[in-house]
Design goal:
Elements lengths: L6 H16 L3 H16 L7 H16 L6 H24 L3 H11 L5 H4 L4 H13 L2 E3 L1 H10 L3 E4 L5 H12 L4 E5 L10 H6 L7 E4 L14 H9 L2 E5 L1 H7 L6 E6 L3 H7 L6 E5 L12
Parallel strand pairs: 1-7, 2-3, 2-5, 3-4, 5-6
Antiparallel strand pairs: 6-7
Length: 293
């Protein structure tokens, strides 16, 4: 997916939130916003939006000298989500369709996104859970369920800290198949790293690898050769979050995107309003996908 003009004000808003997050000094805040404007000036509109985010947040770490700007926030988000985990597991256990509910809850967890929302309280997460239980799920549920059942090798691309605890609910129901969980290779906003997956207890359930990249999405060419090999070999890829949709929607693989719509650009692309819970399949499929290898 390429950058759109409407991505620019969103990026500026992110920069302002980031500036206020990392410093109370007005001069530092102004410098950070100026750096963001410089990034905007250099944007290649053929790139997906997370490329601009990658460049800006790298520069922000250089300015502040802080490698992981949102580490404390991620730890807090993991704690909040883990507090909710026992009750959510109980709801799944008594659900008439556990896989559907776990999928809905994994999507609900995508609300935990500091790039799109800034600070979140536990009430925001609880509201997202209620929506997950009561609002329609847009997309290809029956196809997704069939794809999970048929899969031989599942690559699960995580998105944010906190959210990764909700991913565990879904992963626990699909680990009869080989599942590999992928996290970011270096800090990118509040995106999940290996430590976050371990905090969620996922290291006890599945293999965890990182993609070698610090982009808030999955820029294939920026990722490690190991990840690229695993990506190419997987016959089913579950990609969480809007950043993964923005970077992978044009990739010719059997990918299902699970996320909440967070901006008007994506809303316009898929024809659903902001806030919609989405489970959609990549429309760009390689002829080899699904064949015997």
């Amino acid at each position: 997916m390429q950058m759109y003009l409407d991505c620019i004000p969103c990026f500026v808003q992110q920069a302002v939130r980031a500036a206020r997050h990392v410093s109370d000094d007005p001069d530092v805040q102004k410098r950070i916003v100026r750096e963001a404007l410089s990034c905007i000036n250099a944007i290649d509109f053929s790139d997906p939006p997370p490329r601009a985010g990658q460049i800006f947040y790298r520069r922000l770490s250089e300015i502040t000298g802080i490698p992981d700007l949102y580490q404390a926030d991620k730890e807090m988000q993991n704690r909040l989500a883990l507090e909710l985990l026992p009750e959510l597991k109980r709801q799944i256990e008594i659900s008439p369709d556990p896989l559907l509910l776990a999928t809905r809850l994994a999507i609900a967890g995508n609300i935990i996104d500091l790039g799109a929302h800034g600070n979140l309280a536990i009430t925001d997460i609880q509201k997202a859970i209620k929506q997950a239980l009561n609002e329609p799920l847009f997309g290809d549920w029956e196809e997704f369920k069939a794809a999970v059942n048929a899969a031989r090798d599942i690559l699960y691309l995580a998105d944010n800290a906190g959210e990764i605890v909700f991913d565990r609910l879904l992963i626990e129901l699909i680990i009869a198949k080989p599942v590999t969980l992928v996290v970011r290779g270096a800090p990118a906003i509040n995106d999940a790293l290996r430590a976050d997956a371990q905090s969620a207890g996922l290291d006890k359930l599945v293999e965890i690898i990182d993609n070698g990249s610090d982009a808030p999405g999955t820029l294939i060419g920026d990722c490690s050769s190991e990840f690229q090999s695993r990506f190419a070999a997987a016959d089913l890829i579950i990609a969480k979050g809007q950043g993964n949709y923005e970077t992978l929607s044009d990739e010719p693989h059997n990918i299902y995107f699970l996320f909440k719509v967070k901006c008007q650009v994506i809303a316009g692309q898929i024809g659903q309003p902001v806030g919609t819970q989405v489970l959609i399949k990549s429309k760009v499929i390689s002829p080899e996908i699904g064949s015997d290898r």
